[in-house]
Amino acid sequence: MKTNPVDKLSADIVVTVLGSGTCAPSLARSSCSVLVETGGRKWLIDSGAGTLRRLLEAGTTIAELSCLLYSHLHPDHTSDLVPLLFATKYPDGITRREALTIVAGRGFEDFFHRLKGVYGHWIDLGSDMLRIIEMSTAGGDHVRLAGVDLHTAPVEHSPQSVAFRMTGPSGRKLVYSGDTDYSESLIELARGADLLICESAFPESQKVRGHLTPAMAGDIAARAGVRRLMLTHFYPACEQADIEGECRRTYGGPLVLAQDLMRLVLD
Ligand SMILES: [Zn+2]
Ligand SMILES: [Zn+2]
Model-level pTM? Predict the structure, then answer.
């Protein structure tokens, strides 16, 4: 697979890829996670295995996170939530001064309730330090948090799956697909976005239901008219494939192939 160099401009939203991989263990690619800095706050989108370590490598502690966004409940997107909450309770830890907000599709409350059934008080921060906001999975939804407009849309993967659009204080728009198959609602959500971070899990020759190929992700980006596309969530089969070439069949704009700890600045 060809890779692109780190790209830096100036800042309204700063994106750091913490995990560009999947459930497949990899030294090069952690499971899915993206750190977003905007409006003076730090947000995490998904937290698959390896996220906490990559977060430290990116120079951020868990106490600095204001908001966690979960695209869906699969383990490669959520499994570091338990160690994150447990570490927050560690007595010499990481002193959290403000409540943590979790935003996810409908069904997350039940998922979290079940996790607490297993781990009990070890992951229970109390209602004053943890707030959960469930977004509609039947249609588009919106919440304004810490000066950031957060829009969601259901996508084609699991009943709880949503894609996110974050609009920074200066109006720059970041869209994160989560896992999805071809999705008209993702195209609508991503319309005119400054950056679309889109899953591209398998090459064309190994297309799997519920996931995109590079050409499909490129088609979504082209139809949405995004200013830049980043492909991510690469299963091992992608490492041997010409991901950029496949994407170029449908998309001619600026293209980045995600790598762990890659940083992009939206000006
Ligand atoms: Zn998934
Ligand atoms: Zn996934």
Answer: 0.95
For the cut 70, the answer to whether the pLDDT of residue 9 exceeds it is no
The percent of residues in the chain predicted with pLDDT above 90, rounded, is 89
Q: Which ligand has the minimum distance to the alpha carbon of residue 73?
A: 1
d(CA 112, CA 202): 30
- For residue 256, pLDDT over 50 is answered with yes
139: CA distance to ligand 2 center in Å? Answer: 21
- Helices in the chain by DSSP H: which ranges? 51-57, 75-78, 81-89, 108-119, 184-189, 214-224, 243-248
Distance in Å, CA 175 to ligand 1 centroid: 17
Q: Structure tokens of 181? A: 């198959």
Spacing, Cα 22 to ligand 1 middle (Å): 9
CA of 47 to the centre of ligand 2 (A): 11
Q: What is the DSSP letter of 136?
A: P
The Å distance, Cα 94 to ligand 1 centre, comes to: 30
Say whether 200 sits in a helix, a strand or coil.
coil
